């Protein structure tokens, strides 16, 4: 869940944990496939792909799965085409949701998302009805262990700004760099040149204003987001809930 506070639900059964881990592998594989399709299958030349592979390895995704996902993105393999879908919705309390999906079956995904929204008191919104409440930005994130090993110097900060960085934040020890979406690739390249290996290179929807709600509505929205994120086709959910 992105752009809001998180409620964490304890998983007591190994089966539930394994199911969630498998769903994570599905998402990670699709992210790798899309990154390879858009910018090429060479991680050394594709910062987004390199970051997706890093996340997959950190999640203990098998090497064969990673390689198959890259091959699929490069046009190999027999699986269907992966496409990106974005849905906009209003959840309880007037909170706004942007739901990003990576899927090989558009009809299945549309049906699943609409069903989950309706079942949990949310409504699908027309295109553009929600996105105006958010800023679409490029985000490069340097994990804490890398940031600690290579502290930002004034020279590196200046190089990042020259490459297009508009905001550099300390996020609990990690470094998060924001930029205009069109500058994402060159900002990611600048971090790599400074020996700052990113674990995230992606576009995000950042809410312009956060909405305060009571606990009941907040938990309802959090529950909806959790259900959405458990779906294999849903890659990310952005929300303006405080």
From TrEMBL:
Compartment list: Cytoplasm
UniProt entry tagged with the keyword Transmembrane = no
Question: Residue ranges of the TACO1/YebC-like N-terminal domain?
Answer: 5-75
Q: What is its main location?
A: cytoplasm
| Annotated PANTHER family | TRANSLATIONAL ACTIVATOR OF CYTOCHROME C OXIDASE 1 (PTHR12532:SF0)
Similarity section:
Belongs to the TACO1 family.
- Quote the protein name from its UniProt record: Probable transcriptional regulatory protein COX00_04675
Q: Which organism is it from?
A: Candidatus Uhrbacteria bacterium CG22_combo_CG10-13_8_21_14_all_47_17
């Amino acid at each position: 869940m992105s752009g809001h506070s998180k409620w964490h639900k304890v998983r007591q059964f190994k089966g539930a944990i394994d199911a969630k881990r498998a769903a994570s592998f599905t998402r990670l594989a699709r992210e790798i496939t899309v990154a390879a399709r858009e910018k090429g299958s060479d991680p050394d030349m594709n910062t987004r792909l390199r970051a997706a592979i890093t996340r997959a390895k950190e999640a203990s995704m098998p090497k064969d799965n990673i390689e198959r996902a890259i091959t699929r993105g490069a046009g190999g393999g027999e699986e269907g085409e992966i496409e990106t879908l974005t849905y906009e919705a209003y959840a309880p309390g007037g909170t706004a949701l942007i739901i990003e999906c990576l899927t090989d079956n558009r009809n299945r995904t549309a049906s699943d998302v609409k069903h989950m929204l309706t079942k949990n008191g949310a409504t699908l919104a027309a295109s553009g009805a929600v996105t105006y409440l958010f800023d679409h930005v490029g985000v490069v994130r340097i994990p804490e262990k890398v940031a600690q090993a290579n502290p930002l110097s004034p020279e590196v900060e200046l190089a990042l700004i020259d490459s297009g960085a508009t905001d550099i934040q300390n996020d609990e020890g990690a470094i998060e760099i924001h930029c205009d979406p069109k500058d994402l690739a060159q900002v990611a390249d600048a971090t790599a040149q400074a020996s700052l290996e990113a674990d995230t290179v992606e576009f995000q929807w950042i809410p312009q204003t956060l909405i305060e709600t009571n606990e009941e509505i907040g938990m309802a929205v959090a529950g909806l987001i959790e259900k959405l994120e458990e779906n294999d086709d849903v890659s990310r959910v952005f929300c303006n809930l405080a």
